[in-house]
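## Example pair
The file below holds two records. Each record gives the amino-acid sequence first, followed by its structure token line.
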Amino acid sequence: MFGHLEPGFWRIFRRELRQIKKRPRLAFMLLPYPLLLFALLCSIFYEGLPTALPVAIVDQDDSNVSRQISRMVDETPELEIVARLSNLTEAKRAISKGQVYGVVLIPNHTERDLLSGQRPEIVTFYNNQVLTIGGIVSRAANAAVGTFSVGVSIQVRKSKGQIAYEAMAAKNTIPLQRSPLFNPALDYTQFLLSAVMPAVLQIFICASAVMAFARDRHSKGHMSRLVRLGQTPIKSMLGKLAPYALAYLTTLLLADSILFVFFEIPFKGSLLLHVGYTVLFVFSCLSLGTFLALLAKDTLGSLGLVGILTAPAFAFAGISFPRMMMNDFSFVWGGAIPLTPYLQLRTDQVVRGAETWVSLPTLGWLLLLLCLFCGMSLLLLTKQAKTKDVSDPSSLERNL
């Protein structure tokens, strides 16, 4: 189809396409498998926000007030009462078995204390080992009980002769207005799905680069033949990585199309900048994988380094835990992984709609990682190509 190609970028590019075609498992890993994984993640986060989480009620008061509190908790979209238990021993057992995520305890004399102006204590127990769900249960239960408490307090004050406005003012002496600036609906599709997919894809990208260079490293001609076919180390490396870059850029493009079109997640920033840092992210991951492939002595060792560096990368990226609160080791680890600046740029542009100049320092950080990994890879590739050329008599004769 292409005929004979002179040594250079396109010679290596076509050669790598043939190598991928010969290996169906590798071809499946480039596009179909990441998209299937993304479809699975979409099915998990489809609802956007967890609803109807199972909780239990321990109603020790058994009064009109306690039954009304139970109804308000059950009517909260996030919660659903699936059991009414008689004591806390049963409640603890239900939480331990995973039957419910939380328990609302309404103690004895709640109605009496509330109507007499006292403050009965309604307690919410929840499983905080599942941190996100535990937080939702606690927040929703407290909101339901708090709303009921405010309503009863106002009614008591009105019964004592205060007008409605005075009763409201007395209950809320200093009103608090909360205005979430970003992701106000706590939509986990926008918050987690758009971050988890690049985190998983980073592992695929680095592993693909490792396997691509491992083939040449263990071939008959070693790295010297690769560099001769590409003319220069940089042309050889770019030609070899280009098919993988195109495949993973297509994957990210399709994933973003699903997020912005199907899930209707609003895009608030610069589309041009979004495309730019996405390209930098893919090439940074490929360069990191290349560096690890040339650094380790065997393929398994390279893949092991990829797993060690990239598998926990999401925890160090600052999405679930703020980077400014991390220790020095975690901060440096996260800063050395391309995922961290990419997710920061993505959050700035997609969610916050930040001005372009605000994202320039982070863009420079991602570009610096690309130059660092690419530069170290080129140094190792050049060194190994020269070493193999000198150690292989047949290669020396061809060069002469």
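Second record, same layout:
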Amino acid sequence: MHYFDHAATTPPYPEVIQTLTDIMSLYYGNPSALHRAGEDAAKLLKKAREVCAAALSALPSEIVFTSGATEGNNMAIKGAAMHYQSRGRHLITAVTEHPSVYQAFRQLEELGWEVTWMPVAGDGTVDPAALAEHVRKDTVLVSIMHVNNETGAVQPLEDIGRRIKEKNSRVLFHVDGVQGFGKLPVSLQDWQADLYTLSAHKFKGPKGAGIMYVKQGVQLYPLIAGGSQEGGYRGGTENVAAAAAVAKAMRLSAERQAEFYERARRLRDILVHHIADMPELMLNSSEHGAPHIVHFSFPGLKPEVLVHTLEEGGFLVSTKSACSSKSSEPSRTLIEMGRNADEAASGIRISLGWEHTEAEVRELGAALKSAVAQLAPMTGRKG
């Protein structure tokens, strides 16, 4: 089978698997313990934090290990809102954010916070100037993702961050960086980001592990109360093996980012060309989008039909994002981008990884063309 769902999850680097195996076998001590086994584990945890920080040009003290971006996004958004509520109870985000951000803001709305939901243009991007107009004295947090998990739309984070801080320097800026790290350049300093979240399995690391960057001086109300681990933000015994594996994956992905971008962009262009040759399909990804995601709609057809047809031909693709793929509702992201219900309900996402070759992508294009010709009569369209 040819796996084209790397935006959902990625196969780990062999080095990451080896790191997990070695540390779980040899360094199983509790890093809070005072004996040698605990001290050895603590040293590994410290080193992992330093490696993650270096990959982001951050300080080791600014890195918090988490179970992934869903936890990290909730910690960043709710933790900031609760800690800084004396400044105000106004928050800003976009209507096309990942469910772990979108639902966190919905919960805060239910608890009395006011949320401004920014619309997006047809290409899925937020207007920085329009967003800045909504920043007020009582605005506590703005949260905008780097890369949209469905369409690959890339947000103008540097412009957004600059305008936010010019309007109100005390407003915190959170970036969900899940789909961007390892694919596009990351500059927390240029973005003026205060909070940044990652999930390791999106860049060839282990599942159930990630990090949150918390800029020095920023405080969060801890959602997981307990011990003093992770600067007091996340109580509980640290997963040393996972932290080391995250660090390994971050270092490798950061080092190889520029090469991946060029490689994935070439493959993406081939795939987009194939899709453009099929009038039955509607491309939803912008030409300025992330290099590894191609999203299109097949109006009139349930997306799972095309997914299973391609699977029978040996190609694995997805509908929506992995978190929402089993829902039959139209894509919230596509609706907000101006697509109609039929177009928003028939989306397909193809996402690229290191393993793909030009020959394999051309095979996928041919398989897609054959599947569209086969299925078009079901939509009333000619193949």
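Notes on the second record: Residues 77 and 307 are 34 Å apart (CA to CA). The mean pLDDT is 94.
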